[in-house]
Amino acid sequence: MYSIAPSILSANFVRLEEEIAAVESGGASILHVDVMDGRFVPNITIGLPVVRSIRKSTSMTIDTHLMIVEPGNYAVQFVDAGADMVSVHIEADPHVHRTLQGIRQAGAKAGVVVNPGTPISALEEAIYHADFVLLMSVNPGFGGQRFIPRSIDRLRELRQMISERGLDVKIEIDGGIDLTNVAEVADAGAEIMVAGSAVFGTDDPAEAVRALSNRGAVWV
Q: Is 218 inside any structural domain?
């Protein structure tokens, strides 16, 4: 079973509170928040003040994806701001073990992210210290990109790695998820599906969440 995590990167920020309420009414229990610094990825989005504001307006799990350099300097601050899940890129943090420990100690779920061009084997050690892995199925930095087909094989490889080690690590996927591929992605092992334009790019975000979701068990 899987959960849909609408990504506010594709939302209308003038009406952000309404957009969040809409996806929550559609059954979403996880809200994905992309934090970009213009250095690790070629885009700048939002930061701590927005997360604090979102926390006050929703009971959904806030899933904060840090696409920034030196994420270890900020990860715990996002927990303090109200994030329930915080993920950092394996490519960005030479001290990822320490960062993941800090997130957990602060009371949130700790995630490690892997880019499309990074081998799954790069997670060999970090995976033991993570609650979830976020597999990027597009190159990070912009919304509305097409799903990279090779991501299906990478999902299966990641699922096998987790199973062989007997770990309780969830798999999240981000990039190009829509009605044409959500079933295949779920079959390959993803448990949390981040969806941006497939939700907020429609006339009815609540109905889009319902259409994408199998309405099954939700992990938080």
A: no
